[in-house]
Design goal:
Radius of gyration of chain A: 18 Å
CATH topology of chain A: Rossmann fold
CATH class of chain A: Alpha Beta
Strand content of chain B: 15-25%
Helix content of chain B: 40-55%
Helix content of chain A: 25-40%
Oligomer: heterodimer
CATH superfamily of chain A: P-loop containing nucleotide triphosphate hydrolases
Number of domains of chain A: 1
Largest sheet of chain A: 6 strands, mixed
Shape of chain B: elongated
Structural class of chain A: alpha/beta
Number of strands of chain B: 20
C-alpha cells in the first residue's frame, strides 16, 4: 500500500547570513515525509538537520521553496497563522526540554492542550493517560520541572508534544542531554507513540536513537545524501543495527 | 568594574532611560517647589523692606482722624515711626473680570503722594493723554488688564472708567488676600473721585515697629488705643497677617507640588529596588560565573547600584537644570495670586535636597536591594539556585482550579512575581491618589462649582440689595408679591479686643443656603455669636466675646465656629437682635434667592428701574459668583490637567520598566508558548491580563480609601486657607470610574509596550 505523504517540501533553500558571510545550508532541496513514519534525520554537525526539521514544521522560514503540510502550504503563512497551524499539527520535543519552569508537569501539558480543546476534563484525562503511558506517576505530575530528573522532564515534554494528537511530532536531539537509562526510557516512549500511528520526525547524532526510526535520512552538503528504510522497529532485530551501521558507513559517518 | 557597570547600563538602556526620565521629572517638580518655597517668603520680606512697607497699617474714616490720634499712635509702645496718608475707600465691582465682574474692597491712593512708608514701584507705565489714569496692582494685571487699556468698575450702579497707566508693585494691598486691594490714581482721577459720594475718605496710618518688637504686640497696642478712643477701623493689618494672606494660595500650590514630587520619588525608589532584585534573578548564573572568576560581592553589588546612581544623578542634575526654565513660568503664575513678582535665582539648598538627598535615598534602597548578591554562593548561582528566593509554587493548578484554563493561566502569571505585583500595586495606588485628588478637585470646581464656592465663600445669594430705613419693609412686601425669597443679611465692620472684624448679621442663619458653621451652632438669641476659625483657639464655645461698634459694646456668648476663606477666619456672625445691641439702625440689606429658572439679570434690571426708589444698591451676586468660579476653575483646570499628563507619563515610564523586565524574564517562556502554537495576540492578552488584576485592585483600593482620606486631605489643604469644613462631594462612582480609566490606560499602554512579544519567535529558542 502506498504511504500517505504528510509533508512535502519542494526546492527548499535556506541561507544564513548575507554577502560574503552567506552560508547556504541547503538549496533546491526536496523531501517527502510519510504519515505514520518515524523519520530520523542524521548528518554531521552543521549539516542543517535541525534547520531542515524546523523549516518543515513551520518554526523557521526557508528562503525559497514550498512546504505542503497536511494539505496546507505553510510557506507564506504569517506567524500567527503558523502558530494556529502548529497547535493542531505539530508537537515539539527539544534537547533542552523547555518546560515552563513556573508550572508543574500536568499544567505544562494542560496549557498546550488548552489550545485545541476547551473541555478541561477531556484535556486532563488525555494528559493523565499520556503520563501513564510514559510512566510518570501522579505525584510526579504535580511537581515543578526543577524538582524532577531530566528523563522525567523529557518524557513530560513528549506528553506535552503529544497532547493535541498532532499530525507529526518533531524531536530535536531529544536524548542529547540525558544519560543512557533516561535515553532508553525516552526512546521507548517515542517507539510506543509511533506504534500507535503517530508520525515522528527526529533529528539525532545518536545511532541508538536512530535505530528507533523506520526511515533514516542522511543530510550532507545540503542534499539528501542517503535515505535508508530500516523497517518497523523491533528491539530484538539485530539486522537493523547492522543495516544502520552499514548505511552510516556508506554515508561516511 | 567600570566595564561591568557600562555593560549593565548598555544591557538595559531602555529601562535606565525610563528611570532617568522619572528622576528628571521628580527633580523638576521638587526643585521648582523647593526654590519657590524657600525664596517666595524671603523675596516677599526683602521687597517688603526695600519698599519700606509699614509693619502695621490702620485705616480709619477720615472724619475720625486727627493730629491727636496720630500723636497717640506714635506714642504707642513699640512704634518707631508713623506716616499718614489719605485715601478713598469703596467696594468697587470691577468689570470684565474673567468675563464677569468682581466686587472688591478697594483703597484708592494718589500716585504722586510722597510716601515715607509703604512705597511702590510702577512698571509698564504709559504716557497717555488721558488724565483719568489708574495704576492697578499686579494681581489685576495678571487677569488680563493691560496698561493703555480701559478698566471699568461700578459702584451703586454708577460706572467709572480709567485708562490703565501702569502696574503697581507694593507689599500691602497688592492682591485680594487681605480682602482689600489698592489702586493708585492720577491727580485728576483722584480729585474727581474724592468729590463723589460713593467713596469714603479715609486716613491710613502706616506704622513702623521698633526693631525687635513683635508686630503682633504693637498691633495689639494700637488696637487698644483705638478702642480707648472709640475709633472704628476699616482695616488693621500687621506684617505677618498680610504676608500670610498674600502668599497663602501660592504656598498651598507649591506645597502640593512638593508632595506630588515626593510621591513620584517613592514610586521611583520602589522601581529601582524592583529592577535590581529582578536583575539578580535574571542574571544569577552570570553573577555566579563572575564570582567564580574572582569578582567580589561588593564589586558585583556596586556594578548593580552604580548604574542607578549614575542615571539617577544625571536625571536629577538635568532635572534641576530644566527646572530653572520652568521656575520663572510657575513664579509668574503664582505672582498673580500673591500680587508681587520676583525673579527666582539658583538655590543651592533646593538643589542639594533635589540631588543629594534623593541620590542618598536611592543609594540606600538600591544597596539594600543588591545586598542579596553577597549571599550568593558561586556554584549555586551558576546552577541558578538562589537560596534566598522563595520556592516557586504552582499557583492556580490548571487541573483542579475552577474556571477556564485561559483565565487561570492569566492568574498563574499574575502570581509569579510578588515583587512586581507590589511595585505595580504601589505605583497604581500612588498614582490613583494623585488622580483622585485632581479628579475630585476638578469635579467640585467644574461639575459641582457650588461645592467649591460655598467652601470659599460665606453666602452665595442670587442678588444682594441694600435699602434704607424708609423703604426696607415696603421692598420686602414687593419681593413677597414677586415671589422672591429674601433674608435680612448684611455685613458690618465692628471691633473686637485686637482689631476690627466683619460681622455677618442675619435675621435667621438657618434660612441661609450655605451653612458655614463647622463646630457648634449658629447664634439664635440676641446675646449669642459664632466666631471665625481664627478665634477658635482663644475662645471656647460658651466663652464671652465682646464686640464694639462706635460707642456701643456688647458681650456675646460663643455658640460655634464659622469658616471664612475670604476673611482668613477673622469673622463673626450674630442675629438681627444681636446687632441691635450694637446699633440702633439695622443694616437694611438682604439677600435674594431666585427660582432656578429665573432670569436674575432681568430682575436686577427691574429692581434698578421699576423699584429704584426702594433700593440703595442692587448687585448681581450670581454673576460675581460665576466670575469667581471662572477665575478658580481656569487655574485649577490647568494645574489638574498638567498633573494628569505628568501622572500618565510617569505611569507610562514605570510600566515600560515593568513590562520590559517582564518580557526579558519571560522571553524563553514566550518562545515555548509560541512553539506550542500560542499566537502573539494571545500572549500579549495574557501578559497584559496578568498585570491588570493588580492594577485594578490597586486602583479600586486607592479609590475606595479615597472616600476616607480625600476629605481629610481637602480639609488639610483648605483648612490652611481657613475653610475648616469643605463642602466637597467625593462620589464613590466618580472614584471608581477613575480607577477603571486608570486600569484601561494601563491596559492600553501595556498592549503597546508588549509589542516586542510579536518579534519573539519559537525558533529563537533554539537559535539562542
Amino acid at each position: 500500500m502506498e504511504k500517505e505523504v504528510i509533508i512535502s517540501a519542494k526546492h527548499l533553500k535556506k541561507v544564513f547570513g548575507s554577502g560574503e558571510s552567506e552560508q547556504v545550508i541547503y538549496s533546491d532541496f526536496d523531501i517527502d515525509i510519510y504519515k505514520g513514519d518515524f523519520t530520523v534525520i542524521m548528518g554531521a554537525s552543521g549539516a542543517g538537520k535541525s534547520t531542515l526539521m524546523y523549516s518543515l514544521s513551520g518554526m523557521d522560514t526557508p528562503n525559497a521553496g514550498t512546504i505542503e503540510f497536511c494539505g496546507s502550504t505553510i510557506t507564506g503563512m504569517t506567524s500567527d497563522e503558523l502558530a494556529v497551524f502548529r497547535r493542531k499539527n505539530c508537537g515539539f520535543v527539544f534537547q533542552q526540554i523547555y518546560l515552563i519552569d513556573k508550572m508543574n508537569l500536568i499544567d505544562n501539558v494542560i496549557t498546550a492542550g488548552s489550545l485545541t480543546s476547551k473541555n478541561k476534563a477531556d484535556i486532563v484525562e488525555r494528559a493523565n493517560s499520556l503520563f501513564d503511558m510514559v510512566n510518570i506517576p501522579p505525584a510526579t505530575r504535580k511537581k515543578l520541572p526543577s524538582l524532577i530528573s531530566g528523563g522525567e522532564a523529557q518524557r513530560a515534554g513528549i506528553v506535552r508534544a503529544a497532547i493535541n494528537q498532532p499530525s507529526a511530532i518533531f524531536a530535536d536531539e531529544p536524548t542529547g542531554a540525558l544519560n543512557s537509562n533516561n535515553s532508553d526510557a525516552v526512546l521507548d516512549v517515542f517507539s510506543k507513540l509511533n506504534a500507535t500511528g503517530q508520525s515522528i520526525i527526529m533529528v539525532t547524532h545518536d545511532k541508538k536513537s536512530a535505530l528507533r526510526g523506520n526511515r533514516v535520512v542522511y543530510i550532507k552538503d545540503g542534499t539528501i545524501f542517503g535515505d535508508c528504510d530500516l523497517g518497523t522497529y523491533s528491539a530484538d532485530d539485530k539486522n537493523r543495527t547492522k543495516k544502520l551501521e552499514d548505511f552510516l558507513k556508506e554515508m561516511g559517518w | 568594574m567600570g566595564k561591568l557597570i557600562l555593560h549593565n547600563i548598555k544591557k538595559a538602556r531602555g529601562q535606565f532611560i525610563s528611570f532617568g526620565i522619572v528622576m528628571l521629572i521628580t527633580a523638576v517638580i521638587l526643585n521648582t517647589s523647593l526654590v519657590l518655597l524657600f525664596q517666595t517668603g524671603n523675596a516677599y520680606d526683602s521687597l517688603f523692606d526695600e519698599l519700606d512697607t509699614a509693619d502695621i497699617s490702620v485705616t480709619v474714616p477720615q472724619m475720625l482722624s486727627s493730629d491727636e490720634l496720630a500723636d497717640g499712635l506714635s506714642e504707642v509702645s513699640g512704634v518707631a515711626a508713623i506716616n499718614e496718608n489719605e485715601a478713598l475707600f469703596a467696594a468697587a465691582a470691577v468689570q470684565e473680570f474673567q468675563g464677569s465682574e468682581f466686587t472688591m474692597n478697594t483703597y484708592f491712593y494718589r500716585l504722586e503722594d510722597e510716601r515715607e512708608l509703604t512705597k511702590h514701584t510702577v512698571s509698564g507705565e504709559i504716557a497717555a493723554d488721558d488724565n483719568m489714569k489708574a495704576y492697578i496692582p499686579l494681581y489685576l494685571s495678571g487677569f488680563g488688564y493691560k496698561p493703555g487699556e480701559k478698566i471699568r468698575f461700578i459702584i451703586d450702579g454708577k460706572e467709572y472708567s480709567f485708562t490703565i497707566g501702569g502696574v503697581v508693585n507694593e507689599m500691602q494691598y497688592g492682591n485680594y488676600g487681605t480682602c482689600f486691594i489698592g489702586w493708585y490714581l492720577s491727580e485728576e482721577a483722584y480729585d474727581a473721585l474724592s468729590e463723589d459720594e460713593n467713596f469714603t475718605s479715609v486716613t491710613e496710618y502706616l506704622i513702623k515697629a521698633v526693631n525687635g518688637f513683635e508686630t503682633s504686640a504693637v498691633k495689639k497696642n494700637v488696637s487698644g488705643l483705638l478702642k480707648d478712643k472709640n475709633i472704628p477701623t476699616i482695616t488693621l493689618l500687621d506684617r505677618e497677617t498680610t504676608k500670610g494672606s498674600r502668599t497663602m494660595v501660592s504656598d498651598t500650590i507649591v506645597l502640593f507640588l512638593a508632595v506630588f514630587a515626593l510621591l513620584v520619588l517613592i514610586v521611583s525608589i520602589f522601581l529601582a529596588r524592583f529592577r535590581i532584585k529582578n536583575t539578580i534573578d535574571e542574571e544569577i548564573n552570570e553573577m555566579g560565573v563572575l564570582k567564580g572568576i574572582g569578582y567580589t560581592s561588593s564589586m558585583l553589588m556596586f556594578s548593580q547600584v552604580i548604574p542607578y546612581l549614575l542615571v539617577c544623578g544625571i536625571g536629577l542634575i538635568t532635572g534641576v537644570a530644566v527646572s530653572y526654565g520652568l521656575i520663572p513660568v510657575v513664579a509668574n503664575v503664582l505672582a498673580v495670586q500673591s500680587g508681587f513678582s520676583y525673579a527666582p535665582v539658583f538655590d543651592i539648598s533646593a538643589a542639594c535636597i533635589s540631588v543629594i538627598v534623593i541620590l542618598a535615598a536611592v543609594f540606600l534602597f538600591t544597596v539594600l536591594a543588591a545586598k542579596k548578591i553577597k549571599r550568593l554562593e558561586p556554584i549555586n548561582a551558576i546552577r541558578g539556585i538562589d537560596p534566598l528566593k522563595p520556592a516557586v509554587k504552582n499557583h492556580f493548578p490548571l487541573d483542579t482550579s475552577k474556571g477556564a484554563i485561559g483565565f487561570n493561566l492569566i492568574l498563574k502569571q499574575t502570581s509569579v512575581s510578588m515583587g512586581r505585583n507590589i511595585l505595580l500595586f504601589a505605583v497604581t495606588f500612588v498614582m490613583m491618589i494623585l488622580l483622585t485628588f485632581t479628579g475630585a478637585l476638578l469635579f467640585n470646581v467644574n461639575v459641582r462649582p457650588y461645592n467649591f464656592l460655598t467652601t470659599l465663600s460665606e453666602e452665595l445669594p442670587d442678588i444682594r440689595v441694600q435699602s434704607d430705613k424708609k423703604h426696607f419693609d415696603e421692598l420686602k412686601d414687593i419681593l413677597d408679591r414677586e415671589n422672591v425669597r429674601h433674608v435680612n443679611y448684611g455685613i458690618s465692620m465692628t471691633e473686637y479686643s485686637d482689631g476690627s472684624i466683619p460681622v455677618i448679621v442675619c435675621e435667621d442663619h438657618s434660612l441661609l443656603e450655605n451653612n458655614i458653621i463647622y463646630s457648634g451652632r449658629h447664634p439664635q438669641a440676641a446675646d449669642e455669636i459664632a466666631v471665625g476659625s481664627e478665634f477658635s483657639a482663644d475662645y471656647a464655645i460658651g466663652d464671652t466675646f465682646r464686640l464694639s461698634l462706635g460707642e456701643n459694646s456688647h458681650d456675646y456668648k460663643v455658640t460655634g465656629y464659622i469658616q471664612s476663606v475670604n476673611n482668613n477666619g477673622l469673622i463673626a456672625e450674630i442675629t438681627d437682635g444681636g446687632y441691635e445691641n450694637l446699633s440702633d439702625a439695622p443694616l437694611y440689606s438682604m439677600n435674594l434667592y431666585m427660582n432656578g429658572s429665573a432670569d436674575i439679570e432681568s430682575f436686577v434690571d427691574r429692581l434698578n428701574s421699576d423699584y429704584d426708589e426702594y433700593t440703595v444698591s442692587v448687585s448681581n451676586a450670581a454673576k460675581e459668583t460665576e466670575s469667581m468660579q471662572m477665575m478658580y476653575s481656569s487655574l485649577i483646570t490647568v494645574v489638574a490637567a498638567a498633573l494628569f499628563i505628568i501622572t500618565v507619563l510617569i505611569v507610562l515610564l514605570i510600566l515600560y520598566v515593568i513590562m520590559n523586565s517582564m518580557l526579558t524574564d519571560l522571553k524563553t517562556d514566550f518562545g515555548i508558548y509560541k512553539a506550542m502554537g500560542f499566537t502573539s495576540s494571545q500572549l500579549i492578552i495574557r501578559t497584559v491580563g496578568s498585570i491588570t488584576p493588580v492594577v485594578l485592585i490597586g486602583a479600586l483600593f486607592s479609590a475606595i480609601l479615597g472616600i476616607g482620606y480625600l476629605p481629610t486631605v481637602f480639609n488639610g489643604i483648605f483648612g490652611v486657607i481657613g475653610a475648616m469644613k469643605n463642602n466637597f462631594e467625593i462620589p464613590l462612582l466618580m472614584l471608581i470610574v477613575m480607577a477603571l480609566i486608570l486600569t484601561a490606560a494601563n491596559i492600553f499602554i501595556g498592549v503597546l509596550l508588549c509589542h516586542p512579544i510579536r518579534k519573539i519567535t519559537a525558533y529563537s529558542l533554539i537559535k539562542e
